[in-house]
Write a structure and sequence with these properties.
This protein has a domain of 51 residues: 2,3-Dihydroxybiphenyl 1,2-Dioxygenase, domain 1 (Roll). The chain is 18% helix and 45% strand. It has two helices and eight strands, in the order βαββββαβββ.
Length: 119
């Protein structure tokens, strides 16, 4: 079974500027999700995936693909067995599930998400 990219995060050094840009250029309507500074612009009924807009923790702009996994714990084990590493430890997303950030052996950053509203 393949585990596809199901979500994308846009990490911005200036959230207000980025929200204005994506709203004006692409018609997005980002709304708070899980916290006031984590915004989501849903794809709706169109082809595509939802996009999260948030402040970059380190101030560096980046786009992070997020892969939905069945078990975050099992996937994290496989990441380390195959030469990747966890760069942000697993955390709970209230009412949604759990997530973390990993890198592959080359340093490519990827988010992982496990659906589990009770997490």
């Amino acid at each position: 079974m393949t585990q596809p990219v199901t979500y994308v995060e846009l990490h911005s050094p200036d959230l207000e500027v980025s929200v204005h840009f994506f709203t004006e250029v692409f018609g997005w309507d980002p709304q708070p999700f899980a916290s006031q500074d984590y915004l989501v612009s849903p794809a709706g009924s169109t082809h595509g995936i939802d996009a999260g807009l948030l402040v970059a923790r380190d101030g560096a702009p980046r786009t992070v693909s997020v892969i939905n996994v069945v078990s975050l714990d099992e996937t994290v084990k496989q990441v380390t067995v195959h030469g990747g590493r966890v760069v942000v430890e697993p955390f709970a997303i209230s009412g949604v599930g759990r997530g973390c950030y990993i890198t592959d052996p080359t340093g490519l950053l990827v988010g992982l998400h496990e659906n589990n509203p009770e997490a």
